[in-house]
What we know:
Layout: E1 19-23, E2 29-33, H1 40-46, E3 66-69, H2 82-89, E4 98-100, E5 114-117
Parallel strand pairs: 1-5
Antiparallel strand pairs: 1-2, 3-4, 3-5
Amino acid sequence: MFSHTADAASSKLPSDEAHILVTTPDGAVRSIPACEGMTLMELIRDAGIEELAAYCGGNCSCATCHVHVAPAWAGALPEVSEAEAALIETSENATPFSRLSCQLPFSAALSGLAVTVVPAE
């Protein structure tokens, strides 16, 4: 699918533990534990990845939780809402794989999902 380099802490995760792979704007890749009932924004923020600002706290009103989803995973995600699409359109870093992480609920089917945090604009 795609390759990544995990840091020492993430390599200690059991392979069967639900997780997501997060690449920060500086290129560091972290594997973070994930559980159902949380959004990707909450998982990333709770893992201490400060590059994801999420100023509105998940209300789909600011686009500071913008991520690029690995193309192989794009089809596994829910449809983009009109509100999300409108916010993504305002980003100079928008791509066909842009999503707002506050609009992506984690489920077991997404374990291993890879996203890249978009640099702040």
